């Protein structure tokens, strides 16, 4: 492993299970109950709590409804994803509704997040 790997990626946390959000990130049960685990409010809080654990230049958090059985509603159907990017003291929040099988949703979501990170960084450098 390169001694410089920490200069690029400090760490990551995947929190599919609600207990990881509550017990590791310490997202309050009240926030989750009020907005659901798959919401922009919880996504932003994931970054806020992540900033307490890791000190980095860029943070990304994502929540969403990949399949049935979550907090889906008519206004928030399966395929709805929320992601937030925190860069240079600014939050950039996104909501996407994606269609298709799970693997396609995840591939497209990853594409959107990557493109948005690039645009945010390039826009910041242009300023």
What does the model show?
- The chain starts with a helix and ends with a helix.
- The chain is globular.
- The longest helix is centred in the last third of the chain and has 25 residues, at 102-126.
- Helices cover 44% and strands 18% of the residues.
- With 127 residues, it is of the alpha+beta class.
- The chain has one domain (18-124): Maf protein (Alpha-Beta Complex), CATH 3.90.950.
- It contains five helices and three strands.
- A three-stranded antiparallel beta sheet has the order 1-2-3, sandwiched between helices.
Which descriptor suits the 3D outline? globular
What is the CATH class name? Alpha Beta
Helix content: 40-55%
- Strand fraction: 15-25%
Number of domains: 1
Structural class: alpha+beta
Q: Enter the CATH topology name.
A: Maf protein
- Distance N to C terminus: 35 Å
Q: Tally the helices: what do you get?
A: 5
Strand elements, count: 3
List keywords for this structure.
127 residues, alpha+beta, Maf protein, three-stranded antiparallel β-sheet, 3 strands, 44% helix, 18% strand, globular, CinA_C, CinA-like_C, CinA C-terminal domain-containing protein
Question: What is the topological layout?
Answer:
Blueprint lengths: L4 H4 L9 H6 L5 H7 L4 H14 L4 E7 L15 E8 L2 E8 L4 H25 L1
Antiparallel strand pairs: 1-2, 2-3
């Amino acid at each position: 492993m390169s001694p410089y790997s920490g200069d690029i990626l400090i760490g990551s946390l995947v929190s599919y299970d609600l207990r990881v959000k509550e017990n590791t990130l310490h997202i309050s049960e009240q926030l989750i109950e009020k907005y659901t685990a798959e919401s922009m409010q919880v996504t932003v809080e994931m970054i806020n709590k992540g900033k307490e654990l890791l000190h980095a230049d860029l943070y990304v958090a994502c929540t969403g409804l990949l399949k049935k059985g979550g907090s889906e509603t008519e206004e928030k159907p399966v395929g709805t994803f929320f992601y937030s990017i925190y860069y240079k003291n600014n939050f950039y929040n996104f909501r996407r509704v994606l269609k298709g099988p799970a693997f396609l949703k995840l591939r497209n979501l990853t594409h959107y997040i990557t493109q948005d990170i690039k645009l945010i960084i390039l826009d910041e450098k242009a300023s």
